[in-house]
Input
Amino acid sequence: MAKPSGDGRIRVGIIGSGAISQIIPLPILRQLREQFEIAALCDISAETMSILGVEYGVPAHAQFTDYRALCASDLVDAVLICPLGTHVPYAIEALKHGKHVLVEKPLTSRIDEADAFVAASHEAREKHGAVTLMAYMKRHDPGYQYAQRLVRPLADKGEIRFVEAHHIHSRNERYMDYFPVIRPSDIPDSARAAARAEHEAVLAAALGPNPDDQVAKCFGGMMGSSIHDVYTLSGLLGRPKSIIASEVWDDGHCWRAMFEFPNGAKVNYAWIDIRDVRRFQQEFACYGPDIRVSLTLAMPFIAGDASTVRVQQMEPSPADPAPYGRHDGTAHAGDIRPGIVVPGGEGWPAAGTAHTEKFVTPGFDNQFKREWQHFHACITRGVEPLVGAQEARDDTAFIIEWARATRGV
Ligand SMILES: NC(=O)c1ccc[n+]([C@@H]2O[C@H](COP(=O)([O-])OP(=O)(O)OC[C@H]3O[C@@H](n4cnc5c(N)ncnc54)[C@H](O)[C@@H]3O)[C@@H](O)[C@H]2O)c1
Output
């Protein structure tokens, strides 16, 4: 197992210092300063890095415009992979140098790349003890984990018959508006052209020639956003088995599907773009034999917003009303309100069972912070990573299959 060096903290390098890095990992790593050091940055924008370098104390010699140089550098023990587009070449390069990797979703939209990543992850584990963790942050959310403890055992016994899942999403700007994200002026045109070419190649590889226009549009959303629902559902139910039906409409802005999960669980799913309405909603209502568990996930970027779980069940009514009076109407010494007759007992209909509803907020701790703490435990204490390369590869394959099964309406 590779150990951190220097003062014992894990020295982190970040590849892709854009919006998400600025909003989430950089502030969180500063908060977790006893476990991590922000040791190096990498971006094709030197302007972005020089601003962030001042803010986070990363000197010029630790700012890289070439990710290969960061991966080869002795300055870092671990690398966060967070650019746009595929993450695989960056992750493989870091693993080759024995660095631990935390890889943002989505890994890639290409199955050949995903396979190469799995192989590189195994090899780096064998050779260097390097940890691979996929950044599936909702798996670290206290509300998700509470719901999973209730639902997963039922699903494994075949007792979850149905899940209603939806993800209501506003335009990204509606979430980003609150944060002072740097908008650099030095991104080369060649980088934009390369990103467009990568996108075209990905579409051709995943969907074949001349895909339906709406399917091509929603494929990025499935990979980039529905991936959160895919891994949430597979944590609750097991790996998805098949796509029963799937369609996209509203010029590629809305899609819905019916999935089959193991042991007969059916999932009715929708991803809806509500554009400017600033109300993110991500909900999973799971129906068991005598329980309904509804998980409402927090808005990820809003500090203090906590996920909640609603648990609905039947339970026996309180059996003995004696403190408030005898069933036969007689008074007895010690009764609180002698002589009051309440229904129950012999001669009365049975009290039966009552519907109960419990709202639970299992924790207010931040899911991203917990993810980094888990990453630290994987590196320093040999804890098994919660989400490894194989699961990311399987999610890539599933979403490609899903897009191929989707029709525009
Ligand atoms: N977990 C979440 O909830 C969540 C939310 C938003 C985004 N993300 C993921 O984070 C990643 C980044 O998204 P973003 O919104 O920050 O995008 P962004 O465009 O704001 O940032 C990407 C950064 O990568 C840089 N970059 C591009 N090519 C590079 C290269 N070859 N080497 C180094 N840097 C390079 C860009 O200059 C930019 O600064 C995406 O994969 C996205 O899916 C995750």
Notes: The chain has two domains: 10-136, 139-313+356-365+386-408. The two ends are 52 Å apart (CA to CA).
